Amino acid sequence: MSTRPVIGNRFEILDRERDLLGRGGMGDVYRGRDLESGDLVAIKVLRPEVIAADPGVVALFHVDQEQGERALELYGLASRYPYVSCSRWYEDVAGRHIAAAAAGLPPDVIAAAQERGRARDLEATLRDLLVE
What we know:
This protein is of the alpha+beta class. It is built from 5 helices and 7 strands; from the N terminus they run E-E-E-E-E-H-H-H-E-E-H-H. Helix 2 packs parallel to helix 5 (about 120-130).
């Protein structure tokens, strides 16, 4: 049996240390795998201590995810970049709630987003990196 974290019975974080892509104010972003498609994905996970300190942060997390979906539609990226998707999952792991969003962004887009320091603003990242 795998000890790798699986979110929503669909997204697997391969190695929490090696596959950490970045850290933001609310959570961490990991490289992972979509167990249904086999695709590599970026998985954003809210840190448990952040949720414990302010349970309202989960609502902000959802707003961030919804902005990403709106950006895909607004800028016509859904048809241009069909591999980009945003999903929301909840999983009770070791007695605490973890919320995560996965976006099937290619590694160069993730790297560029990190470089620009825009990982917390997905809408601006997509606009800046994919529409230019």
